[in-house]
Amino acid sequence: MSELTFRDPQQVDSRRILYTPSAFARSCLVHLQEVGRLRALSPHRSQRSDLASYLFFVVLEGEGELTYDGAVHALSRGSCVFIDCRRAYSHATSRKLWSLAWAHFDGPTMHGIYQKYVDRGGLPCFRPGDVQPYLDLLAQLQETAAADDHVRDMHINELLCALLSLLMQAGWRPAAHRSGASSRSRLADVKVYLDSHYNEKIALDDLAEKFFINKFHLTRLFREQYGSTIVNYLLSLRISRAKELLRFTELSVEEIGARCGMPEANYFSRAFRKIEGVSPTEFRRQW
Questions:
Q1: pTM higher than 0.85, yes or no?
Q2: CA pair distance 68, 54, nearest whole angstrom
Q3: Share of the chain above pLDDT 70, in %
């Protein structure tokens, strides 16, 4: 697929690839829609809404602003933007004309991924300590989209997932960063305790008393720090251990539930099925 060079003598000079993914990529993968670079030739504004796409771009030079979700964000060299284009947005360059590198993409899981990004503290605009990894991925996307490769959509999916991983990492802003070393230390101690005592009965009130922290405060900080509630984290530990015992021992399902902190057999089976989609017995048979 070849690059398109677009020149508007009054506004922009851009090089872009308008990509058409396969039906398989549209239904199963995070897929590319457009990738490119542009240089503004004069001050201008681009405005869109209800676009079935997610946009990531980096300001390479110059200055401008993004209007998104009712807020205006100042942008300059090194600024990154990650937004859901189904919401109304506009971006505009100022007197210090900018150049941008960008990609539009979508996928069947993107709504959930973007919501997770927001839930973890991700912002529509941010400034990473090192912008080069983002630029490298955008350049690789452009090169891959232009290549003649029968597994091109898989490679593009891989690159976009790498980009999303960078964005998730950059967007994680746990409250523990604001609450000081003492709270961070206590949260780490709570996690270590859960990792070691998952097979015991653990109540939130007992944790709060043991680590001298208000249970509501503990619940909120733990979720923001580790991306999971204490209950879900503990359940994940127990189910992971149960899966090991089901696969690699001859213990009965009841014994395994008890060893994993879920001695009531019916509760263990319900919890296991909720996570894995099958009963413990069926999981053992499958594996």
A1: no
A2: 13
A3: 92
